[in-house]
Specification:
about 140 residues; alpha+beta; Zincin-like; three-stranded mixed beta sheet; about 10% strand; Peptidase
Length: about 140
């Protein structure tokens, strides 16, 4: 398990004269990694959708991966590089996977990334339940 930097042991520097410390404080925005910020955005959108549609969101597992797999699934005609949904089968719940690197590459800024994440999550939920995305989120695609 990866330990938070502020809980990690402090080691001496290379010459043994002092301790190694972060170059910036743990409370500063730079301390956050891009993947951590992406995960927080996904969690915020998940909380928002769960507040509006708990019966649709709770049975679905959500995950974030860095890049999509090389080979698309045989039943997929045109693969979507941003996200993927997997229907429930044989005791395995339905899953939605968002791919971080393609989404970050498309986004121009943080707000744009939040909108892309929202649209991808709503589109995949709509795909799983056979609904139109506008039924789940009226602001979808705007």
């Amino acid at each position: 398990m990866i330990e938070a930097p502020w809980n990690a042991r402090v080691y001496r520097n290379r010459h043994g004269r002092g301790t190694r410390t972060p170059m910036f404080g743990t409370r500063l925005p730079r301390y956050r990694t891009r993947s951590g910020m992406f995960d927080d955005m996904v969690a915020a959108q998940l909380r928002r959708l769960n507040g509006a549609w708990p019966q649709l969101v709770q049975p679905v597992q959500f995950a974030v991966e860095d890049v999509p797999p090389y080979e698309p699934a045989p039943w997929e005609g045109e693969p979507n590089l941003n996200s993927r949904s997997f229907p429930a089968a044989h005791g395995v719940p339905a899953r939605v996977v968002l791919y971080r690197m393609p989404i970050q590459g498309m986004a121009q800024n943080r707000m744009d990334m939040q909108l892309i994440i929202r649209d991808e999550m709503v589109a995949r939920l709509a795909e799983l339940y056979g609904r139109r995305p506008e039924e789940i989120d009226p602001d979808w695609g705007l």
